[in-house]
Amino acid sequence: MDSVTAAGRPLFDRLDEQKPDALLQLIALCDADPRADKIDVGVGVYRDAAGGTPILRAVKEAERRLWQRQETKAYLGSQGDPRFTALIREIVFGERLAADDRIVGLQTPGGCGALRLGADLVEKANPHARIHVGQPTWPNHAPLIECAGIEMVPYPYYDSEKRAILFDRMADALEGAAAGDLVLLHGCCHNPTGADLSPDQWREVADIVARRGLIPYVDIAYQGLGNGLEADAAGTRLVVEAASQALIAQSCDKNFGVYRERVGNLFVKAASKATADKAFANLMQLARTMWSMPPDHGAAICRIVLDTPELRADWHVELEEMCARIRVLRARLAAYDPRLAYIDGQNGMFSILPLTPEQVLALREEKGIYMAASGRFNVVGLSDDNVDRFAAAVVEKMDG
Prior knowledge:
Aspartate Aminotransferase, domain 1, 13 helices, seven-stranded mixed beta sheet, 2 domains, alpha/beta, two-stranded parallel sheet, Aspartate Aminotransferase, domain 2, globular
């Protein structure tokens, strides 16, 4: 048998052409730009005042302790590190809700792994499942969910021109969802808009979820970078408690600064403990077929930080410093021009500028400023030295 298929064409010639990932393409373009004063606000990583992405002190010390004390590299199993997951469980849910035996969880390769694993679980349970997804949303949500074969139903979330959440339209859409439908929600620090639901709006969503029998699928990837660990988890806890079933995709990549380690968890709430145990068994089987076992290094670092009082305290301090820096940058941008004032009322790393794709391209070509074509930019991608130059360039385009 040769390399030609029965259809008479080489195997890989039969593949469809694929569009390159826009963000990865943007990163490559920025890396290739020789200008020393270029500004990268496209990639979503935290940067300090000097423009670097440092390793947190607590993480560095935990890594040192791991290197000194780890005695084996033997497999952990498809569940990953159960102590790590238990520690994160309480951070996400709080002490009371974390004790609910209808909630099960396991470690995943980052938030992406959690989202995909959850989608596969949903498809396995109901091949006809639908998930309602706010627009706009993180661009990778659609590929991760659609790969599992789940139908996506868009609902209005944010108006980029008015810089406002379309809550009435969102609520109407959820009221029209069928019992058993899923609804994708950003737990905090909405990506790409930075526009989070208010506490009252979260309560209304929780009420709709409970009344309509909907299943919240919460993506909480930035806990602690908005208004603090507890405040950032409040909405997630409300909807999870209100719902009889829920999925929560969690990531440590941002709040521990361990981006390249790919550290996350998937939690599932079922209607009963028996069903939760069944869901967990299915998660283990699905995880085994995808990545077999999640990487341990990053999870072990986070576990050591959270299990060591002095390191956990230092992590809290560093996280508060990161959060404060984001707030300062938002205030500086908002003060530069009244049309940017909305940025100060948002949360987390991202916001969307009122720019056309043509204006974004012009900023890249003329000023070396790299951001997504939608106008989404990473607020904390700015250094103290270039924030005013960035704001001036943006306002110049808005005036033009």
